[in-house]
Amino acid sequence: MVCLKRARYQLITLTLPTLTDWSGLIIIKTYEILKARHAKHLEEFHDELLQNTLEEGAYNKLYSFNHIVNGFSVHTTPTQANKLKKAPGVKLIEKDRGAKMMTNHSPKWLGLPQGVWRGWRGKRNAGEGIVIGFVDTGINPSHPSFAYNPRDGYLKNHTSFPSVCQEGPMFPGTSCNGKIISARFFSAGAKARGNLNASVDILSPYDAVGHGSHVASTAAGNHGVPVIVNGFNYGRASGMAPRARIAVYKAIYPTVGTSTDVLAAIDQAIKDGVDILTLSIGPDEPSNQKLTMLSMFDIFMLFARKAGVLVVQAAGNRGPEPYTTASYSPWAVGVAACDTDRTYPGSLFLGNGKRIDGIGLSAPSYGKWLGQSKLVLAKDAMLATGNFPRTQEFIEECQHPEALDPVIVQQSIVICTFSAGFANGSASLPVIMNTARTLGFAGFVFVANHAYGDFIADSYPFYIPGIMIPKVSDAQVILDYYEKQTERNNDGVVTVFHARATIGEGRVASYNEKAPIVSRFSSRGPNFINVEKTPLDLLKPDILAPGHNIWAAWSPMSVKHPILSGYNFGLISGTSMAAPHIAGIAALIKQRYPSWSPSMISSALATTATIYDNRGEPIMAQGQEIYTLHPSTHFDHGAGLVRPTRAIDPGLVFTSDYMSFLCSLPNTDPELIKTAIGETCAHSFHEPSDLNTPSLTISALTGSRIVKRTVKSVVAYAMEMYICTVVPPTGVAVEVNPPWFTIVPQGTQDLEVTLKVTQVQDSFKHGEIVLTGNLRHVVRIPITVKPVSVS
Fold this sequence. Notes:
Organism: Helianthus annuus
Protein name: Putative PA-domain containing subtilase family protein
Main location: secreted
Strand content: 25-35%
Radius of gyration: 29 Å
CATH architecture of the largest domain: 3-Layer(aba) Sandwich
CATH topology of the largest domain: Rossmann fold
Subcellular location: Secreted
Pfam families: fn3_6, Inhibitor_I9, Peptidase_S8
């Protein structure tokens, strides 16, 4: 929006999404006080303004707005629009950006529809025949993301998979329908705790939380499901592999989750024979075992991998601190989280013409003063008398309707403040909305508090107009304006509220952001081997995928997220949301190459990832300070952002020997490994870094070291020649031998990588090896090294 000048009439101009098509130009004008009887007069004024400003025949007025706002929309050219911008009385003009309906935006952003899914309705390239298992909080069986439509050509029963459907409360036998191919629940561990709440801890595969439904639909939800929240259509949702089948293993309950139930669920999933196992749950801290990867959780994942099941694991949500990854083992794909280029920008318009950007999926507010509402600070609306304590919870946080004067706040936009209750978790946004609805707010503004600093805000749907202002500097602009427009008596009590504001439309997506950016919450490497966090020569996380503000299926019970109660869709963030992206993409690869091992699939995902964003610049990461960015490293993004269209044709892959890797770990007790795995250490690598992974990590490089890798061609039709290039880490010289090679279809090639310290560094440094083939395959191998001594 552009403020042109002060005038009796204030105009806002919105235009259509292209630079050359101004057919949707919208001009909004408001009187000082808009009254219904002025409707005809306003329409005549619109026509007169257009006739006096624009050339005859050069425009077409589409609508006159004359009730809540005074304005009109017009179809015209850029030249005529520029004339209109300069017309007397015009204050604001903006080109219509349009509203794009692509709810789970990540399929398109990752290139699935135009790449991997090409012809998916005919060729079934979207995961047909693949079963993805989900160990989580269950599933909402009535959700359209999991509906079975026989006209879509699904087989009613998967011929090789045991279709067991455990009935129970809210989960009838018909819940397993061909899309949900099997559903079980595991509760022995939860029952043993003795603290189940019968009203929410439902003993069936039904999802009372929403998390399991969100994860399952992100990976394998049906294609093109309309997403409607609070009556607003946000577009259509789709899973990464919409033709894949879903096997549900509920092991987490709202009030309790035990490793016992999780392990039982993993075990059953392995027995059932899922192709992909998704673990967006699990321990968020290392076990007390001597080796992190010999915890029971990791051992079970190893057995899954040995059974031919690809395990995808959330990396954890304890970032941005280092050494926080919850994925330690090479046999599980640890997934970090990032955003996409989509945002939902919200705005607060103050009476002085200033615009403050904020967050909140909210309809706009409307008021009777110039289209704006009275702006009131909550503490200035507190009742002088009343039986309630004068604490921040009652004074500032809008948590108690009985503390506010309904005469003052009705039809006002009320400023509620982040204070002690929000810092300790006792206050919440749903309670603010309840207060607003009870007292008839026109809307609310939830602002940061300088005493607590900036806060992190996610885009939540608000059923009344509302906006969050998470930055202290922006909050101060609002408060400064408010104070200048507010009259007080000698006691500091407000006598007249002159401040005005409008909450703008916050539900329309924008697709212009720099992305990906590694999310602040996403857990980081380096990987470590024990509770003392001794670094391990193995890269974690493995890969990066969208995990911030992801639309997907939800459960109306929403026991853990009251703000989403009653909704069938949730916009949620976490590495839990990133992991199913990788699981679904892995299903697409598995469908195309049924004989590929889990190692080959995970290798294809990693070696084809990118470390550059949508603007061709290195990926950035959110840092320690809120709203700050720094260049991302392999410990933030792993191999990089997944690229499905490249992963289905990787050229070369790596395969791994995990038993030899375990036996080569420092200070390893062979008896401990035998006890845990059931196999003896017949062979070990010289160093753990010799594990044949598509990355190379050395946590303490002294002098020089030779590391070996073996690649296998998965090109079926021709020989390919590769040239090796190196981007060395700072302080390390890297040489690859042979520097080039030709490999036959299904052939293998040994590579010898020599790393030599040239300058000691006080931290890990990052680089990569790039193998470029003449058939357009590009294989990236991340290098992460800490050079500690030149000899």
